[in-house]
Amino acid sequence: MLLTRRHFLYGVAGIATLALMGTGAVWASGQTKGDDALATLSVPAEAVTSSNDLEEIEDSSTVMAIASTIKLPFGSLVWSCDDAVAACLLPTEVAKPLAQIGLIFPEAGTYLTVLEHAVGEAEGFEIYDVRANSAGVIWTEADIMDGMWRVYGATLSGETLGEPQLLDEGDVNWEMPTLACAANYGYWQRLPQLDGNARVEDSLLKRAAFGTSNAEVVYASQGRMACAPTSCGDAIIAVPRARTSGTYYQLTRIDGASGAVTDAMVLPASMKPLECGYGKTGFNFAFDGIYNYGDGIANLGTYMPLAPFEHPPLDAGEGAEDEGDDGAEANRFLPVAQANGGTRAYSDQPWFHYVRNPLSAPAWCGDWVLMRGQSGICAVDLAGKRYTSLPLENGASSYGEFLASTNMGARTITYSNIDHTSLEGDQTKLCLVRVWQPV
Question: Which InterPro entries does the UniProt record give (predicted)?
Fold first, then answer.
């Protein structure tokens, strides 16, 4: 499967950066004289509603319907953050290329291969990862023999991919960048390898407008960011580490078009989320372990506020400093110490806890939240405190159904790789993409 081959690429091709830090960079900083003034999320156990307490809807077809299905090659991987288009990696049956880039058009129920070979194929590069929205496509290519990687971006006009632009490249001192996209920008996050020459460097979230090669740093984090950035339609969610004496991670919503921080919340010390996202009730995040502190926010699973609420305006305020050497406007973004107002607002809300092993960030489908736990997808109506489980396809792999979407949209995409032989001897081997919408 392509999944296995991509994991091999990830293990071998660690990486570094050749691009200079752009203007407008922001540091996850602001609290440098101790942590006493840093407000962190604090939610009592009685303010948390568990998924175990919800009412079950046994017939999922009464609330969620399949709008379309698309059949891809077996072993395909899919990502979606836009109602109109989704990105996919399509495995081939030959050694070179290993994978191609495809686009799925959910409303039409079709897909199209838009990049058959890596831009650097002649130099030993293979396509590794991809994200897309209606404005463009961003992808990575890796040369595992030399431990090199490159990030490319291109505009998207309907079904036509524009000229690829080289956005960044690096070597074994930096991990393979993780990708996201929002508005007219492709985003990528670079983390230093733990045992590389850049291990003391800051983690960087960078971006470039589709159709250009002008990269800029959007956010810099002391040490490694907690998890990969998440595309949430018109915004990017990142989790930088605070520049403090302790270890604090800040969930940070970055507007896709302006690059400005529009919401922020600091987790208790040493709590590190596996996944993050954003929806109609604000931030969501997931833990794959259990903490012996944190009161209502401490156990394995996915958390989010139970209902929408008014978010206080963010203001860098007194004490914000310009961390750059070039006179960049640091106050255009929010240093972590000034996220206190937002954090306290989140602490005052009732919360929801999806009590399942987290495997991906949630997605909003209308007023329903779709989450993946274990091998299946669950749809939750937070307002009605009810849920339903989406049916699995026969012959799905042990991985079960994947949740491809991470945004707030009118529809949500899931997919499963199926290798099934019927009693009559008929074999089905494909990747089945299903597009869901509320009834």
Answer: TAT_signal
